[in-house]
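Need residues for this backbone.
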């Protein structure tokens, strides 16, 4: 069909060419005749009129035939274009779309697949396209506005922080300009004591501020308005009779329970505001030794100590180094393969101590560590705790053993019926009274 149309088109083109040649020849003859007529204008007026009339009648007829043939050819070519491109058009594109708004989105319809077009987009354009396709435009504008607002607030916050830092620096510069006499007076006065407390607060590792703890179905508090501050590297005894609140204090520090009132800070953690998901991180900085040892009965000594390393996700190489090292420190290097139920009470407590220390904690909590030991093992365990303290670990020992408290001359905090009744450096157990 197309072949036939093409042949017809060729014939039309040939016909048009012939007509054009004939028209050109007629024009040339007419010009020659007009030139001859000019030589004798008066004699040949009538003859020229006849010739011009004949030429005028023949020429439009011939020329119009050529124009019609050319228009027919142009129409056929437009029809062919319509078949190929899909555009209908007797008139030109400018005439057809003169009064319509140009839409570039349809310009390349059918040329690329969707995947090909997206492959050519930049990442930012891909994101915008996805955003337009998935989120209504009003919601998109709202999201962008919210993002801009958050960005503005962050900038304002940083600006305020910079201004506050600048003011603080200016204030410190002004304070440094005080005279020596004013400084000495300040150091002897109330402000000097507060500054000393503020500077030493960086060294505080445990702070209980006005802590009160009630248990359900008990009218009286286990702890009542307790205020205790312990510095890094201290060795502190917590003493008191049974039921005085010592074990509650340990549970609060381990974050096994929360205070009813007041706040507790351990290291960088504020326990009353600490999320449950961060409690394991808190306890990784603390080692705990219990009166009943709490060892894994079906494991040997090495596995009991290595268990603490596995909790903090230590590598096998680290465990092979750290476990034998700490077992040697507590005097159990030769019994690493022994099962815990084959050991004596003193040896089991040493295993518990090694497990508490293998992760090198900042704080060691010992709840009645010598309660089930004979005097000889008691002295050995306490000597180990003192050695650990000398290496920089903060040691907090809850006990009711007056002999070890009085012999070691460390800080003693005495609790009675949930209230701190004394807190003395190098104290002794007699301070309970």
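Answer:
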């Amino acid at each position: 069909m197309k072949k036939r149309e093409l042949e017809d088109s060729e014939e039309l083109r040939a016909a048009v060419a012939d007509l054009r040649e004939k028209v050109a020849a007629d024009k040339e003859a007419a010009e020659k005749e007009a030139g001859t007529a000019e030589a004798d204008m008066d004699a040949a007026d009538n003859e020229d009129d006849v010739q011009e009339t004949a030429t005028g009648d023949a020429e439009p007829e011939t020329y119009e035939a050529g124009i019609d043939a050319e228009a027919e050819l142009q129409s056929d070519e437009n029809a062919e274009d319509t078949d190929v491109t899909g555009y209908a058009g007797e008139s030109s594109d400018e005439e057809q779309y003169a009064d319509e708004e140009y839409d570039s989105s349809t310009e390349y319809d059918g040329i690329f697949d969707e995947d090909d077009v997206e492959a050519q987009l930049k990442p930012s354009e891909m994101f915008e396209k996805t955003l337009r396709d998935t989120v209504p435009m009003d919601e998109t504008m709202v999201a962008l506005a919210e993002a801009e607002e958050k960005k503005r607030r962050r900038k304002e916050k940083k600006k305020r922080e910079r201004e506050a830092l600048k003011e603080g620096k200016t204030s410190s510069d002004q304070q440094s300009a005080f005279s020596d006499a004013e400084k000495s007076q300040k150091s002897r006065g109330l402000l000097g004591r507060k500054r000393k407390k503020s500077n030493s607060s960086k060294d505080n590792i445990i702070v209980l501020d006005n802590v009160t703890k009630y248990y359900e179905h008990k009218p009286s508090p286990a702890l009542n308005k307790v205020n205790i501050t312990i510095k890094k590297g201290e060795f502190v005894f917590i003493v008191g009779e049974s039921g005085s609140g010592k074990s509650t204090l340990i549970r609060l520090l381990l974050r096994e329970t929360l205070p009813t009132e007041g706040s507790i800070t351990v290291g960088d953690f504020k326990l009353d505001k600490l999320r449950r998901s961060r409690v394991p991180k808190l306890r990784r900085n603390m080692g705990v030794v219990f009166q009943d040892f709490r060892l894994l009965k079906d494991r040997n000594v090495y596995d009991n100590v290595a268990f603490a390393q596995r909790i903090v996700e230590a590598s096998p190489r680290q465990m092979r180094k750290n476990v034998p090292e700490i077992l040697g420190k507590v005097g159990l290097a030769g019994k690493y393969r022994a099962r815990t139920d084959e050991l004596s009470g003193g040896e089991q407590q040493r295993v518990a101590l090694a497990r508490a220390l293998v992760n090198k904690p900042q704080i060691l909590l010992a709840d009645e560590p010598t309660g089930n030991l004979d005097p000889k093992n008691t002295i050995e365990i306490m000597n180990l705790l003192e050695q650990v303290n000398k290496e920089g670990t903060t040691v907090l020992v809850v006990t009711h053993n007056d002999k070890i408290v009085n012999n070691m001359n460390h800080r003693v905090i005495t609790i009675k019926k949930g209230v701190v009744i004394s807190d003395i450096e190098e104290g002794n157990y007699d301070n309970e009274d």
